[in-house]
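Lab notes, practical 5.
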Amino acid sequence: DSVKSAQIDEYLERFDAAFESVGGDLYKKPALYFFWLLLEEAHIAVFAPEVQNTIKAPLSKLSDAWKDLRL
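Output from the prediction step:
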C-alpha cells in the first residue's frame, strides 16, 4: 500500500496545507473543493481500481488542478 499511496502523497500534503490556509472551509475556495474531489477519486483509482470512477484519469488531472488553484 505504501507504493500505491506514494502516487498521491505529494498531492495530499499540498491539499492539507491549502486546506489549513483557508481555515478548514472547502467552500471558501471552490477550486480547492474540486481538487479534494479529484484527490478522493485518485484514492479510489489507486486502491480500488475495480470501482468505476466518476472522473476519468484523476491522477493525471491532479497536477493541472493544483496549478489552477493559485493559492
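Observations recorded by the TA: The mean pLDDT is 88. The CA atoms of residues 33 and 50 lie 25 Å apart.
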